[in-house]
Write a structure and sequence with these properties.
Layout: H1 21-46, H2 51-61, H3 66-88, H4 97-135, H5 138-144, H6 149-186, H7 192-202, H8 205-231, H9 236-268
Helix pairs in contact: 1-6, 2-6, 3-4, 3-6, 4-6, 4-7, 4-8, 4-9, 6-8, 8-9
C-alpha cells in the first residue's frame, strides 16, 4: 500500500530512548526557576513591591533567624577552637589557632552553616506558606484580581533573603570568632590581644569577599527553590508537607554542591 495515508514501517535497527523521569523533572525544575527568576527581576525593576511587605519578610528572615544562627556559630567556633588548639599544640603552634579558625569561618563554615540554617527554617517556611496559599486558591484569587503573584508573594521574599543572608553570615562569623576567643582564653591560655592580632594578620579582604559572595548565591538558591516549590504545590495538606521536605532537601544539596564551584571561582578571581 502506497500513498500519504500508508502506515510507515519502523526503520530496521531504530530504537527509541526513554529519558528517565528524574532527569525530565530536574530540567523542568530548572526551567521553572529560570522563568520565575526572570519574572521576579522584572517585577522588582518595573514596579517594586510594597515596603511593608518587604519589611515583614526582613523580620521573618533576619530577626527571627538570629537565635538559631548565633547558637550554631557559637558552638562551631568553640568546638573548632578546642580541636585546633589541641592539634596545633603538638607542633608548638597553639597560639595561632585564631588564624586557622578565622579563615575557616569566614571563607567556608560561616556562609555554609548560615545558609543551611536559613534553608531549613526560612526555606521551609516560604514553601509551606506559599503552598498553603496555592492549595487554598489564594494565588488564583490574586491573579483573578489582576495582580501579579510574583510581585505580591515572590519578590518581597527574594529581596528579604538576598539582603538578610549576607548580614546573618557576617553576624555568624563574628559570633563564631568570639566563641573561639572564649575557648582560647579559658582552655588554651592564649591572650585576647594575641588572638585578635593574629586573626587580623591572617585574614585578607579577599577572604571576606569570598564568604559574602557565596552567601549571596546561597540566598538566591534557597529563595528561588522555596518559592518555585511552594507555588507548584498540589494535593492539599499532604502536598504542602511534601513540598516543605523537598525544599529543605533541594536547598541543602544545592548549597553544598554549589559551594565547591563557588570556592573554585573565588580562588581563581
Amino acid at each position: 500500500m502506497t500513498g500519504a495515508g500508508a502506515a510507515r514501517k519502523p526503520v530496521s535497527g531504530s530504537r527509541s530512548v526513554a529519558v528517565p523521569p528524574a532527569i525530565v523533572a530536574f530540567f523542568d525544575a530548572l526551567g521553572d526557576m529560570a522563568v520565575l527568576s526572570r519574572d521576579t527581576l522584572r517585577a522588582i525593576a518595573l514596579r517594586p513591591p510594597e515596603w511593608s511587605a518587604i519589611a515583614e519578610q526582613l523580620e521573618q528572615v533576619g530577626w527571627r533567624s538570629l537565635s538559631i544562627v548565633n547558637l550554631t556559630a557559637l558552638s562551631t567556633g568553640m568546638v573548632l577552637a578546642l580541636q585546633l588548639g589541641h592539634s596545633l599544640e603538638r607542633f608548638g603552634a597553639k597560639p595561632f589557632v585564631s588564624r586557622i579558625l578565622g579563615l575557616s569561618l569566614v571563607r567556608e563554615l560561616g556562609p555554609i552553616l548560615t545558609a543551611l540554617m536559613i534553608g531549613g527554617r526560612v526555606g521551609a517556611g516560604i514553601a509551606a506558606e506559599l503552598g498553603t496559599m496555592a492549595v487554598t486558591e489564594q494565588v488564583d484569587a490574586i491573579r483573578a484580581l489582576g495582580a501579579s503573584p510574583v510581585r505580591a508573594l515572590v519578590a518581597p521574599r527574594m529581596i528579604a533573603i538576598l539582603v538578610m543572608l549576607p548580614m546573618l553570615t557576617v553576624v555568624s562569623d563574628l559570633v563564631g570568632i568570639a566563641g573561639g576567643l572564649i575557648i582560647s582564653l579559658t582552655e588554651l591560655r592564649v591572650s585576647a590581644d594575641f588572638y585578635w592580632n593574629s586573626l587580623v594578620q591572617g585574614l585578607v579582604v579577599n577572604d571576606v569577599i569570598s564568604g559574602l559572595g557565596k552567601s549571596v548565591f546561597f540566598a538566591y538558591f534557597i529563595g528561588i527553590i522555596a518559592c518555585r516549590t511552594g507555588l507548584r504545590v498540589t494535593g492539599g495538606a499532604d502536598g504542602v508537607g511534601r513540598a516543605t521536605t523537598a525544599t529543605v532537601v533541594a536547598a541543602s544539596i544545592t548549597v553544598l554542591v554549589s559551594d565547591f564551584f563557588l570556592t573554585k571561582l573565588f580562588l581563581v578571581s
